[in-house]
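Q: What residues go here?
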């Protein structure tokens, strides 16, 4: 327990990150709840008229809540991990609080706009999938993220330690998140051009910028928890980053098959999509090698569970599961089916959710001065999440295969196929309920751990160094 208190004294701004993690997990719970409502709606389709919100609004909220909790979790992780690696506290600690409330208010504004103004006001709701937020919220979110990047870079530039590879990778991922959000704010009269640049935001966030942040975070956590030589971790990290950028940037082409772009994207998208699992496999392999080299006992097993789960989920869910349907010869049949949904529910929770929870279980016990916390709730929550999501993933994959055969091969109509898929939608609901229970248990556990208060002088917390 004393180590946590000493660290808080050395880097007092760390205590400000606790609310980022708690907010992220609570927003995930709300996202899951909306997903369960939609799952019930799939099974009882006639009940949709009785819901206060239509399915399209529920889906928009479901997607945007994911973006919000992911941003809060990653920003909290950046601010938590940065001080120890740079050897100094965050340059502008007051900004940490201001940015949290600013981003949270933007998120609330987006949610209210989607509920009440969908289809009514373009400045409040644009309606494009994943980019439903209106132009007002786009501009405010860009400003908020720019302030985060400024604070991160200002801290890095005054680092007392030699700039390390993980820090540079994290900074690159943070800057990339800003740069790749801007194309989504440009107006195009052509729907082809609009779709072309919409995917710059969606794909380059999830499969480039966020992958860089994930790689950097995993490297820093391994450095913090193990005695593996820094040179080994940084060597693997450099190779991972090079492959992520090489395959991720051109691998964007698998989104361009059927939107009216030149035919060269069929070749480029297919080739580089086939290579995308390579850096993700390397991430798993490097984590395995690092842990094998480690001679230091890892006391916080929950973090270990989450990090191993995230690396495996990234490789299998984002890599192999994506590869299964991104080759153009296959995607011709699978595009727009439940196979895509299966991939999405594997890649995002399997990678980023577990990673955010892992950072939270590393940060909150230290911030709260409770390093000897009971770990059984976190472990049970992890397995409930894994079992629940695996059931959802398998159910959706089977439903997608049936959908491809009946709809794309036999030529049955979309609605004719839905009755065949109902048992698998029921299976998905069961998996969702299990995962929801895991999320609730983890949220309860993190809140319980965070109730321990650490006494740090307020002047030190907000002091700019």
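A:
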């Amino acid at each position: 327990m004393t180590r946590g208190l000493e660290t808080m004294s050395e880097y007092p701004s760390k205590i400000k990150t606790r609310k980022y993690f708690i907010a992220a997990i609570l927003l995930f719970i709300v996202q899951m709840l909306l997903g369960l409502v939609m799952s019930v709606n799939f099974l009882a389709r006639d009940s949709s008229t009785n819901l206060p919100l239509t399915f399209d609004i529920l889906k928009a909220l479901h997607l945007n809540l994911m973006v919000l909790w992911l941003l809060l979790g990653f920003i909290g992780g950046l601010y938590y991990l940065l001080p120890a690696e740079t050897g100094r506290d965050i340059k502008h600690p007051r900004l940490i609080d201001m940015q949290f409330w600013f981003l949270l208010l933007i998120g609330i504004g987006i949610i209210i706009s989607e509920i009440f103004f969908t289809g009514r006001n373009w400045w409040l709701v644009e309606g494009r999938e994943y980019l439903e937020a209106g132009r007002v919220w786009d501009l405010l979110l860009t400003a908020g993220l720019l302030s985060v990047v400024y604070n991160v870079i200002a801290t890095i530039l005054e680092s007392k330690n030699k700039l390390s590879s993980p820090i540079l990778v994290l900074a690159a991922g943070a800057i990339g998140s800003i740069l790749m959000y801007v194309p989504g704010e440009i107006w195009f009269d052509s729907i082809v051009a609009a779709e072309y640049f919409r995917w710059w935001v969606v794909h380059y966030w999830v499969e480039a910028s966020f992958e860089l942040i994930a790689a950097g975070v995993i490297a820093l956590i391994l450095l913090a928890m193990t005695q593996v030589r820094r040179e080994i971790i940084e060597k693997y990290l450099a190779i991972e980053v090079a492959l992520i950028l090489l395959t991720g940037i051109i691998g964007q082409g698998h989104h361009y098959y059927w939107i009216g772009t030149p035919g060269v994207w069929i070749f480029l998208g297919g080739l580089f999509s086939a290579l995308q699992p390579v850096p993700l496999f390397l991430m798993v392999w490097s984590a395995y090698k690092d842990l094998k080299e480690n001679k230091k006992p890892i006391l916080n097993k929950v973090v270990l569970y989450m990090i191993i789960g995230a690396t495996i989920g990234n490789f299998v869910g984002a890599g192999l599961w994506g590869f299964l349907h991104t080759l153009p010869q296959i995607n011709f049949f699978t595009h727009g089916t439940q196979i895509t949904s299966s991939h999405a529910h594997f890649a995002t929770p399997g990678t980023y959710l577990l990673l955010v929870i892992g950072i939270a279980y590393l940060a909150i016990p230290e911030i709260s001065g409770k390093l000897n916390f009971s770990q059984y709730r976190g472990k049970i929550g992890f397995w409930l999440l894994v079992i629940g999501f695996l059931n959802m993933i398998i159910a959706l994959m089977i439903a997608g295969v049936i959908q491809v055969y009946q709809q794309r091969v036999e030529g049955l109509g979309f609605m004719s196929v839905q009755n065949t898929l109902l048992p698998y939608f029921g299976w998905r609901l069961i998996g969702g309920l299990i995962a929801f229970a895991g999320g609730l248990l983890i949220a309860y556990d993190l809140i319980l751990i965070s109730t321990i208060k650490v006494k740090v002088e307020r002047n030190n917390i907000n002091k700019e160094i």
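A: Context that may help when evaluating the design: The two ends are 26 Å apart (CA to CA). The CA atoms of residues 385 and 435 lie 4 Å apart.
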